[in-house]
Design a protein that fits this description.
Distance between the termini: 59 Å
Helix content: 10-25%
Number of domains: 2
Number of strands: 28
Shape: elongated
Structural class: alpha/beta
Number of helices: 14
Length: 569
């Protein structure tokens, strides 16, 4: 079991004081973070784990750190076994280091005992802190994370510190039993804080999450920012993800930044190509901002919201491809401010960059939904989804397939079933297809909507309720951007007579009625324009349920969409 040490105690022994880190201040403020999610080939042997020469790693990481310095990024992170030591040396030589109040947390390539001591000797102006562990026989290398930040000495002179933390738990993925046989285990982990009352920061290195104990390692009177650096082909495996559930179950004020390599990274030339990125940020954010503008902006920049419903924590998933993400986040603890000034509103994507011999800003990240659905359901283009925003598509697909909660707040992302992660923690969104995870349930719901569009709408053989005669053989499915109107998904060809059509698929009459009641409750007064279709399990015929108590709605539904919306308000 690794022992946690408070870095301030070690700094005091060296007559150093940390320059307060912005990310750890307990004030109502935001900070900028930069997350590098690299791809490429990883070489490994008994000598260590490093980037393959084809990765162009020297240029990528130097450019990443140079931008973090010049853009005054407060928190910069790279995943396990990623940052080359020669890049770090170049940064030291050129004075490219964290600015005052900033910290870099770099998962570095493996390094040997003698190599690390030589690196320290070559940089006498830097204060190095690490365990002096003499390797046992045949144990050749460390898996390190470097925390780089600034301190002041007793005469107020600046001193940059590189705190090197060594991995304490080998990986479970048997890469030729590489780490089991050859890694030099660390015995310490570190808490970094501005003072006793600040937020506490630490890093877990991949499989260390297997042994994380919220009871022994954490104090529920404090706030924590945990970075989890991974090189992991199975980031959603319960063995790796259970620690997050344990931490949230312990009711800690905690935020977890889990950063993996990008989808497509490869363990050795010709080896397994990973299907996953799986990087995400996990936190309970009571006042999180989930308006359409924020949601759609984040989505375009590759930051995707989802929600864990059992323990009520928020998840911001990163696009799986190789990118650098610039994000704005709020300090997790704002207790030093007056309560009315507290404003923790969640994470906002500022910029996303892709590599073209330098990091270039992306106009939009590919969520893979269009290409995936066109492959799986060729008739998907018949649905009104082209050029629609992510949140408009989510609401339309959820409503039209009957997957909404019986609440007037059903349009809120936290109430949409598709925003709730699966039990294994994977994103279940209609608009994200970054991985090869089983999407059967999502596809089944979309297929139901294509059946509604093809077989029930404008089909002269289908009988409509009398009160919907205006729509008979003269209507279309519509996905509306306006949140206030998104309870309607069918209009006449002249954009009048709004209604809501839902198709449930194969159902018994009893189950269909239960679904109608649930949807009707969510739609409130708009339920007079609701038709729920289903295919009867007994006879295989299409049937519908609607509110029989309302015999005529001609007067209500002859108006324009805007007028009807005002009427419902």
């Amino acid at each position: 079991m690794a022992e946690y040490l408070n870095i301030n105690n070690i700094l005091t022994e060296k007559s150093l004081t940390i320059v307060p880190l912005k990310v750890l201040k307990t004030i109502s403020d935001t900070y900028a973070m930069s997350l590098m999610q690299p791809s490429g080939i990883i070489d490994f042997s008994s000598d260590g784990v490093k980037n393959n020469i084809s990765n162009n790693a020297d240029k990528k990481y130097f450019s990443f750190l140079n931008k973090a310095h010049s853009d005054n990024i407060n928190l910069a992170i790279t995943p396990e076994y990623s940052c080359p030591w020669n890049v770090l040396q170049k940064c030291l030589d050129e004075g490219i280091l964290p600015n005052d109040g900033a910290i870099w947390i770099l998962g570095c390539e493996s390094i040997k005992y003698d190599e690390l001591n030589q690196f320290k000797s070559s940089n006498e102006n830097i204060e190095f802190i690490y365990e002096n562990i003499t390797p046992d026989y045949n144990r050749n290398f460390y898996s390190p994370v470097c925390y780089i930040f600034n301190t002041k000495d007793s005469e107020d002179n600046k001193k940059t510190v590189i705190l090197v933390q060594f991995k304490t738990q080998h990986m479970s993925d048997p890469i030729h039993e590489l780490e089991v046989s050859h890694i030099i285990y660390g015995t310490k982990r570190y808490w970094i804080s501005n003072d006793v009352n600040s937020i506490y920061l630490s890093a877990l290195i991949c499989a260390e999450s297997l042994a994380q104990n919220p009871i022994n390692d954490f104090d529920n009177t404090k706030s924590y920012l945990i970075t989890h650096l991974q090189l992991n082909t199975k980031p959603f495996n319960s063995s790796y993800s259970q620690y997050r559930k344990n931490l949230f179950m312990a009711d800690l004020n905690i935020e977890i930044i889990s950063l993996n390599w990008a989808k497509g990274f490869q363990l050795q030339v010709g080896g397994h190509i990973s299907d996953f990125g799986g990087s995400a940020i996990y936190a309970k954010i009571p006042k999180i901002k989930l308006d359409d503008l924020r949601m759609n902006k984040n989505h375009k920049k590759g930051l995707y919201y989802s929600f864990e419903n059992s323990m009520k924590y928020d998840i911001l998933n990163l696009n799986y491809d190789e990118h650098v993400f610039y994000l704005k986040n709020y300090n997790i603890n704002q207790c030093s401010d007056i309560a009315i000034l507290e404003s923790r509103l969640g994470i906002e994507a500022l910029n996303t960059f892709h590599w073209e011999n330098r990091w270039i800003e992306c106009t939009s990240c590919d969520d893979k939904s269009e290409s995936y659905l066109n492959t799986q359901i060729p008739i998907i283009n018949e649905l009104p989804l082209i050029n629609k925003s992510a949140i408009a598509r989510e609401r339309f697909l959820s409503l039209t397939s009957g997957n909404i909660h019986p609440s007037k707040d059903w349009k809120n992302p936290k109430q949409l079933e598709s925003f709730r992660v699966r039990e294994d923690g994977e994103c279940n969104r209609y608009t994200i297809y970054d991985n090869t995870t089983d999407k059967n349930l999502v596809l089944q719901n979309i297929i139901k909507i294509t059946i509604l569009n093809r077989d029930l709408i404008n089909n002269s053989q289908v009988v409509y309720p009398e009160k919907f005669k205006e729509l008979y053989n003269n209507c279309k499915l519509v996905a509306l951007e306006e949140k206030s109107l998104s309870q309607f998904n069918v209009y006449k060809e002249d954009d009048k007579f709004p209604a809501t059509f839902v198709y449930l698929g194969d159902k018994s009459e009893v189950n269909a009625q239960e679904a109608f009641d649930k949807i009707s409750k969510a739609l409130e007064c708009a339920n007079r324009r609701l038709i729920v279709w289903y295919k009867n399990l007994l006879d295989g015929n299409y049937k519908f349920i609607c509110d029989e108590s309302v015999e005529q709605i001609d007067d209500d539904c002859s108006a324009t969409k805007i007028a009807i919306d005002k009427e419902d308000e």
